[in-house]
Design goal:
Distance between the termini: 36 Å
Helix content: over 70%
Number of strands: 0
Structural class: mainly alpha
Strand content: under 5%
Shape: elongated
Largest sheet: none
Number of domains: 2
Length: 254
């Protein structure tokens, strides 16, 4: 899917979540005895994604990757200092099993990152590995909680607005087809190119509808949005069929 561009309100919401969440995760990390509480806010910021389901996926990848990476270092390099070869060997070993288990690329990145940082800092900052695991879990938990209770991401209205402009565009194309016929069906016309542009807009609208559907997963206010999304999908399906019929008419008369 394409990258989701946030509205001003969504950006403000994201800022508030980062500000509030960073403070909470930092204090919780300190409360649980962390010497490096900044690790909590880092995990929180990584997990604040455009939708709740994406936040959950990033959160799981962050926790799994951090735990596997840190444990790998604890087991494989208790007496080694960081250097190119030790990093390469431990990283390779720690990534083989997750790769076989088809862990996603985000988790693989987190595993590699944890191996690198824990191997480097564990000897210099005592307890860094344990703190990294605990604080990452705290940051992820706070991020998911804020996503649920503070302006939960919902892309339904945005998707519906993309669909609502299509009937007007489709009507314009019908008018242009009628004008072309009245002019004697001149070989010089741009109707087909315009229809291709409309098809592109319909395809983009369909992607927006899919993004909106994803944004409703685990969303506490999804019940109000699901009927609207269903209506939008039905309208888009009808418009696609009308567009197909217009294409067919054009090919017959061309």
């Amino acid at each position: 899917m394409n990258k989701i561009n946030l509205t001003m309100l969504e950006k403000i919401s994201l800022i508030l979540k980062m500000v509030i969440g960073s403070a909470i995760s930092w204090e919780l990390a300190v409360l649980f005895g962390s010497k490096y509480p900044y690790l909590g806010p880092i995990s929180l910021m990584i997990c604040l994604q455009a939708t709740i389901i994406k936040s959950i996926r990033f959160g799981i990848a962050r926790m799994v990757g951090t735990i596997i990476g840190a444990v790998s270092v604890f087991i494989l390099a208790p007496s080694l200092h960081a250097n190119g070869w030790s990093i390469a060997v431990i990283m390779l070993v720690s990534l083989v099993i997750p790769l076989i288990l088809r862990v996603n690329s985000t988790a693989l990145h987190q595993i590699a990152l944890s191996v690198l940082l824990v191997l480097e800092f564990e000897h210099k900052l005592h307890g860094y590995g344990v703190d990294r695991i605990r604080d990452s879990i705290i940051g992820v938990a706070v991020a998911l909680l804020l996503q649920l209770v503070l302006n939960s991401p919902n892309l339904t209205k945005r998707a519906i607005s993309e669909v609502e402009v299509l009937p007007i565009m489709l009507a314009d194309k019908l008018k242009s087809l009628a004008t072309w016929l009245e002019a004697g069906a001149s070989p010089k016309n741009y109707f087909y190119a315009d229809m291709n542009l409309l098809r592109k807009k319909m395809f983009e609208a369909e992607n927006k509808m899919q993004e909106a559907e994803v944004s409703l997963r685990f969303n506490p206010i999804s019940k109000k949005s699901k009927p609207l999304l269903h209506e939008g999908k039905s309208l888009l399906k009808t418009l696609n069929q009308v567009g197909t019929d217009i294409d067919f008419l054009y090919k017959i008369m061309d």
